[in-house]
Amino acid sequence: MIDSTFYEELIRIDGNLLQSCLVLFMALFISRVAPISRKYHPVVLFHQLANLLSQKVIHPQRSPKQQVTAGLLASMLLVVPIWFTIYFILSLAAYPWFFDCILLYFCISDAGFKPVAKDVISALEHGQKATAKADLAPWFAQQTRSLSEIGIAKATIERLLISPIYGTVATILFYAIGGTPLVLLLHLIKQLEHCWPNYVPQYRFFSAAIYLFNRIIYAVPTMLWNLTLVLQGGFKNISSLINQPSHTGGIYGYSSLYIGSRILEVELGGPQKFVFNQQEQRVDVSKINPSRMPEVSDIKNAISLTSWAVTFWISFTIAIPMLWTGLRWVQAM
């Protein structure tokens, strides 16, 4: 039996660490079992604000330098007031751990897509392509109305493969480094890249700084997620961690998409359509691992692959405090 003073001493010395781990684990767990519907997610409003602002300040006819400057100013205008307001509220909260858990829950937005992917599978199996397109629409900047069944499968698999990078893995890593304020700040900046895809000509210079910043900041979460995918997909795919195409074409998470396509043995990428000034525009996007076209069964395989990988990271957050408590107990013996 361990004396009660051990627990008292543990809480006194490591209480903040254990509380932070518990808050993070609860946010991750709740996001998996009770994800928030996309239409109720605050990030949708943020996307709408970003798109409205970009329509006002994007002028493709201007010089690249002016477009980059406009993109930086627009990003600061969107991110800084929201981040500072929430940070100020958190600093005044009587129970900051509660608000930390809520904010982390909202930042782990990837959890909400797994049920959508399952709905897409059900719709495709019943021949309801229109329903599948409608389910995907809130999650993509690209136009989904004209997607074929192959396009629907590609879009669904791609989202499953890349969203845990900035959702689960990045949240765990950045929370450990700088707490909830850092997670929120970097998550808002990441969302701007989804609103202004760098591979779209209109955003090529406007979002260049955001794209470069995110590639640097999310390099470590991306590498960790890629390693997790390879461990789940089998060591035969370990070469894909290193041997990848040198040109990503401005596509976020290209390395994860490439690894996922190799594991699932399907083709991803390809042309996309966007709406600018009420006109539909086709954007050529590089094909990733040109091979067999994905089917409904491949979406199921992608769900299985990413679910196990995400479960590993959630288990990791609860294993750390348990191991730490065990070490403290051994030390106290």
TL;DR?
Helix content is 68%, strand content 4%. The protein is mainly α and 333 residues long. The longest helix has 47 residues, at 149-195.
Rg over CA atoms, rounded to whole Å, is 21 Å
Quantity of strands, as a count: 4
Task: Describe the strand arrangement of the main beta sheet, using strand numbers.
Answer: 1-4
What percent of the residues sit in helical stretches (DSSP H or I)? 55-70%
Provide mean pLDDT, rounded.
87
Our count of domains comes out at 1
Query: Biggest sheet: strands, sense, closure?
Result: 2 strands, antiparallel
Report, as a whole number of angstroms, the end-to-end distance: 11 Å
Percent of residues in beta strands: under 5%
Notes on the protein architecture:
There is one protein chain. It is built from eleven helices and four strands, in the order ααααααααααββββα. With 333 residues, the protein is mainly alpha-helical. The chain has one domain (16-332). The strands form two sheets. It has a two-stranded antiparallel sheet. α3 packs across α7 (149-195). The mean pLDDT is 87.
Furnish the topology, listing elements before pairings.
Elements: H1 4-33, H2 42-57, H3 64-92, H4 96-107, H5 113-125, H6 129-136, H7 149-195, H8 208-217, H9 219-233, H10 254-264, E1 268-269, E2 272-276, E3 279-283, E4 287-288, H11 296-332
Antiparallel strand pairs: 1-4, 2-3
Helix pairs in contact: 1-4, 1-11, 2-3, 2-7, 3-7, 4-7, 5-6, 5-7, 5-11, 6-7, 7-8, 7-9, 7-11, 9-10, 9-11
Keywords: Cell membrane, Cobalamin biosynthesis, Membrane, Transmembrane, Transmembrane helix
Organism: Shewanella electrodiphila
InterPro entries: Cobalamin_biosynth_CobD/CbiB
